[in-house]
Amino acid sequence: MKAMLTAAARNENKIPQQPSMERQKSATSIISKLSNSSATTAATGGGGDTEKADKPIKLPMNLFAKRPSMWNSVNKLLTKEKPPAPVRKLENTYRMEPQHEYEFKSQEVRGVIEDIFKIRLKDETYEQKRANNLARNLAEVIKIRVKKLNMPRHKLVVFCVIGSRQEQCLRLGSRCVWDDKTDDFASASYQNGSIFAVATVYGIYFE
Questions:
Q1: Contacts of 136 (CB under 8 A, 6+ apart)
Q2: Most exposed among 94, 142, 143, 202, judged by the fewest C-beta atoms under 10 Å?
Q3: Which ranges in 45-162 belong to alpha helices (H)?
Q4: What is the pLDDT of residues 97-135, one digit of tens each?
């Protein structure tokens, strides 16, 4: 009987930790098995039966096996890589000219140039060292503002000239090879007591 209790204690130590209700059920089943075995031994007697009763009771290992959690299955489904979205293929429009609302807006572009000149050059004085960078910055600002006028598929080219005002005469001209129906330009100038500036924006329609 002592050997049976020792073996049962060893097996109980090897059993993984279970919730309180399952532990109580396991302990109850072990005690009932031990009581049944001791009762059988006491009733039958004999050396051979005693040797059989001294052997430890083997419990099924799958009784306390860890079951897969539902959250693990859900996590696998959520983390599963999604297939890439199909690429949308659009038919060619074969449009060779812009729609009316997307044509080059010369008047609006000219107004943008004049507004930028008034704000940036109102109190500006001409300095030869700063003139180059000033012209580049003005051209970049004009291009950014013109892009917001919603003229898609137009390539923009901005040309800006800054010089010292000394009562001289200056004329600027340009030649372009383009389509008069789709391509256009806008130009504006500004001057104060010390500086003058001229900017031209060319809009070339990209087929």
A1: 160
A2: 94
A3: 47-54, 70-78, 106-120, 128-147
A4: 888 889 999 999 999 999 999 999 988 999 999 999 999
User: How many C-beta neighbours within 10 Å does residue 190 have?
Assistant: 20
Q: In what order do the strands lie in the sheet with 195-205?
A: 154-164, 195-205, 184-191
Residue keyed to tokens 């807006």: 105
Which domains, from first to last, does the chain contain? 2-78 (no CATH), 100-205 (3.30.1140.40)
**Residue 115: closest CA among 141, 140, 151, 135:** 141
Beta strand 195-205 with 154-164 is: antiparallel
Q: Give the integer Cα–Cα distance in Å for 150 and 173.
A: 27
Q: Please return the burial class of 2, using the count of CB atoms within 10 Å of its CB with bins 0-12, 13-18 and 19+.
A: exposed
Q: How far apart are CA 183 and CA 98, in angstroms?
A: 10
- If one counts every other C-beta atom within 10 angstroms of the C-beta of residue 135, the result is 18
Average the pLDDT over 141-157 and give the result.
93
Report the distance separating Cα 87 and Cα 71, nearest Å: 34
The Cα–Cα gap between 105 and 184 comes to 8
Q: Of 55, 66, 68, whose CA–CA distance to 11 is shortest?
A: 55
- Indicate whether this model's pTM tops 0.85: no
Q: How many CB atoms lie within 10 A of CB 112?
A: 22
